[in-house]
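Input structure tokens:
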């Protein structure tokens, strides 16, 4: 009987392999339907395209995918040391996503001179490509978590923002200053010089006496800041289930939100007026460039810069141009989102570091 880790490993690998081959077969089958209609070829063309897709999948599986998975599972040194990017995601983008986008562009090009209405891909194959991409990303993110029972880092109760002690600073008191001055004059802190020049005991108390504590104790200056702290709060009652959460389900939500902008850009490319024009080239090229963010690990500091440089800035430019040329092919919400994200990233990351923005008098 295989262990739970073995079953989980087999499940993940089967799902990733299915996400690799299924989009290619679906896209190539749709492309095979386009070729006979555009050039008047026989059914032989259709089966040649299908056979080429089978040969491609077999070649990349045996030559690239299986060796990569073997080295990853065996934790070879040059693979195990990689921590800032994901080799599996990079190989998947090169072997699956890139060919699928290239076939979509080629299907538009072969129909450029057709007299009849331009045939564009139905929504299902394109959704299959994007859904497989999202599934691979989810598997890479959730691979280290268990599937049964509680999550490894699950918090049973809702986290609330509370003050967190960050810094303790000792402040010198008046009595402390007097002790220091007396020490510099060569006298012990508890002795003073009388008028006739003799040394008298100013104060002599036990170490634990209140008077000594008053002289030696320093008042700490404590600074706080409000941030999310892992301080669980206990909730009871019939509505306690409303405060339950699990990090594994949040991975699915975060991943779909991560790819939402790219999905909308690919949807714009599926519009007939855009698909049968030259604008389909920059749309699919920029959509693929935004997919390169998948290579970076989710918690890397480079992900924010990659999101602005590879997605928000290029998407804002191409969406403004598409709206000017074709009209309302995309909602205004998305270019506004791209503009706002780009401006806020530039401001909070770079402009606030300038001297003019460090003045205390500004809000």
């Amino acid at each position: 009987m295989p262990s739970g880790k073995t079953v989980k490993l087999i499940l993940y690998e089967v799902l990733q392999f299915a996400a690799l081959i299924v989009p290619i077969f679906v896209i190539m089958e749709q492309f095979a339907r386009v070729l006979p209609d555009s050039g008047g070829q026989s059914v032989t063309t259709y089966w040649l395209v299908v056979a080429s897709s089978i040969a491609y999948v077999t070649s990349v599986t045996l030559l690239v995918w299986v060796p990569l998975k073997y080295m990853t599972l065996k934790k070879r040194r040059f693979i195990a040391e990689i921590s800032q990017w994901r080799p599996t995601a990079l190989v998947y983008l090169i072997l699956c996503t890139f060919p699928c986008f290239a076939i979509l562009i080629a299907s538009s090009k072969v129909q450029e001179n057709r007299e009849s209405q331009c045939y564009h891909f139905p929504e299902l194959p394109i959704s299959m490509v994007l859904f497989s991409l999202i599934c691979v990303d989810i598997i890479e993110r959730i691979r280290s978590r268990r599937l049964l029972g509680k999550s490894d880092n699950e918090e049973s109760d809702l986290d609330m923002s509370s003050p967190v002690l960050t810094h303790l600073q000792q402040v010198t008191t008046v009595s402390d200053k007097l002790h220091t001055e007396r020490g510099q004059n060569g006298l012990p802190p508890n002795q003073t010089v009388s008028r006739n020049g003799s040394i008298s005991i100013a104060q002599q108390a036990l170490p634990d006496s209140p008077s000594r504590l008053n002289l030696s104790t320093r008042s700490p200056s404590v600074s706080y800041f409000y941030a999310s702290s892992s301080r669980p709060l206990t909730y009871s009652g019939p509505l306690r289930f409303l405060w339950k959460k699990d990090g594994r389900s949040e991975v699915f939500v975060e991943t779909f939100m991560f790819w939402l902008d790219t999905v909308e850009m690919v949807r714009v490319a599926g519009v007939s007026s855009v698909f049968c024009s030259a604008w389909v080239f920059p749309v699919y090229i920029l959509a693929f460039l935004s997919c390169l963010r998948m290579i970076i690990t989710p918690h890397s500091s480079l992900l924010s810069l990659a999101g602005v440089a590879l997605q928000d800035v290029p998407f804002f430019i191409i969406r403004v141009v598409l709206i000017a040329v074709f009209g309302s092919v995309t909602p205004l919400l998305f270019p506004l989102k791209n503009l706002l994200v780009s401006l806020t990233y530039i401001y909070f990351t770079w402009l606030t570091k300038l001297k003019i923005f460090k003045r205390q008098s500004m809000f």
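The radius of gyration is 33 Å. The longest helix spans residues 4-39.
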